[in-house]
Please model this.
Amino acid sequence: VARSDIVEQKKESGPMPRLDRRRYNWESAVLLLPTALLLGTLFLLPIGYAFYLGLTNLQLIGANAVHYRFTGLVNIWRLLRDAEFFHSLALTLYFVVGGGALASTVAGLVLAMLMERAIPSLRAAVGALAMLACILPPATVAVVWFAVSTAGGVIPWMLGMGQADLLYAQPMLVVSAANAWSLCGLSMLMFAAALKNIPSEMIEAAILENASARQRFWRIILPMIRPTIMTSVLMMTLLSFGNFTLVFLMTGGGPSGQTNILPVYSYVQGFTFHNLGYGALLGNVIVVLASLLGIAFVLGDRLGSRTAPAAKALALT
Amino acid sequence: MKNGKNMSRSALLGSVALGLLCALSASSSALATDQVRLKVAYSSDFVPLTPEGGKKFWADIIGQFEKENPGAKVEAITVPGAYADVENKMSLLFRSADTAPDVAELSNQDIVQWIDSGYLAKITDRVASDESWKGMSDSVKAETTFDGQVYGISHGENEFGLLYDKAMFEKAGIPLPWRPKTWKDVLSAARKIKVSNHDAWPLWLGTGTAQGASGAAYGTNNLLLGSSDPTIYDAKQDKWVVDSKGLREVIDIYRTASSEGLLAPSSQLLNANAIATPPEAMAKHQIGITLSGNWFTLQWLKQVSAPYYPDAYKQIGFAPLPTVEGGAPGAASTLSGWDLAIYANSTKKDLAWKFVQVMQRKENLLEAGLLNGWTPPVSAYAEDKAWTDLDPFQADFQKLLPISVGIPLKATYNTWAMGFLTATEAVVLDPKISVDAAIQKMDDYVANQVGPEEVVRRK
Model:
């Protein structure tokens, strides 16, 4: 942005503050107050309370439903010895990173690239369908995928498996696919916009230089849409973390715990076994994990873009 | 300043409206204080066979009660959803004295947790003089009796037996009436049906973790009660049984049935709403033999119509679920029911008890039985001709009442039940899993949740 503008403004209003130091304008605190209040009361306070509940023996019904107390690290010790927790953690990573972040981002990118070549009417139709999949409520996605992946459904039929219950044979794969399916429309939209922003001269120049399609993809397209990839991965990760409904409705965490991702396990502990305290602790693990993953992606992006200044410079032009 | 004028006018109008509203609500609350409000919470979807039937039943009861108690007004809290939803919503209601119902309809399967919470009032003295209580069998009374105190009163019971499709049996060359003596008889009939009726599901034995712990009482536990060792909880050692000859026999029958392709597809058998499938599938001649709750056949009546199946008694046969090798008592069934309980901190316990007493009248218990699919808890009412004429199957189911057994009144029962369902579900999904491996799954599951010192292996 034009730096001279700021300098000129400041000249009018007294002595120049040093631009190389961070400056605070205390009046802005007042303007931030409504947001701060909202975030504080509706976000931080409940999370803080959930962290407290995670360290109590609160039950939904049972001896400690009314008379519960702070139990210190008891729940945490239990968590560390809980085999199902670690199993659930592994499933969650598979679901969120595999089915969420990777599968839906890759699917979105592939769809967007295919659509670039498609005739406009087909592009509009496919785009609309992908968007429809993405705005469907998770409950509908669950019903649709339950129907197509169980005996007599379209998917087993296409795979030549006839009356097989694919959902029950490969539960984790099917729920992950359902999740990726419902998210890839959003990612496709993001990539379609990013691909449009790549200057066509560059691609033409590369073609003139005899660059193969593969080279063009790895050397030009991918570096240029890098920020979009990061955004997509982050969004898909966080959206998958919250996708309790889909898995719970399709399998309820089963069969035999094969899709017992953390949000479902937290629910089962809280509402099937009535251990609300321990269920809250599992919920807190999700909060911590999602925050860590978010931070990791942002840091990774910064680090990546620092090591690839050329790509950044290109993206800026 | 046109806008300013408009603003002040609308502000004036607004404040007048607000004032009116306040006055109105004040007068309506003044009206309300003349009447005593009694809060009653009950399941609106899961318990009634049809939502319409449920509405009719409760409207009848509330009408009778309000007519007899002119000063009282019932505030009905309807709880929608399946078993787990009912349980969860009820527990959330009870968390605050403001929302806690004075009278609640609760499943006997976790009554002990409600008692442990301190939510339920002792009604030992009240039931002592109650006609319906006096007429109940000991097993029904035991469902709501904890440490010598009574916390609830049954208003309906369920037993389980086998229903079979007569046409399929004839086609398979199995002589009628069918009376299996052992589990082997059941399996061999299912095998014959598989050969002669290709598209049918020969055998339906409920299991699956998706429907929550209630799946055990409606499925696997029936078989366990008929096995060589039906112990769920070892009372002497105060531990949950996670390995026994009985558990192994049950896992084995699921495994055998699954490996031979005798069961319904997993997506039908194991899904969260599986318990609703057999009554509909039987009426469509899709199932050969099914483990059946006594409400399955009540669902086919014209008065209930979910679905209406006029020829049921001609086309469907009944047989008790045999014991594993035909040993005494020759049949097995779980006993599960729904109880009425009064909130411990209710300020209107006398009125609440009056409401319960209205519900426990003979005609109301029979109506509850019909519309909710229950056996009336009072033995004499269940044997009444008016009841057995309604649905001829009920007489057969009711004969099972004396041998039917409820669950142990222990707070961690849900965990044991989920462990048992996990083990049986595992062999249904993959019969290559050995019985040993399935038992190990159950052991791991229960020990992991309740602690390794709380489980026992009986060989």
Chain A has a mean pLDDT of 83.
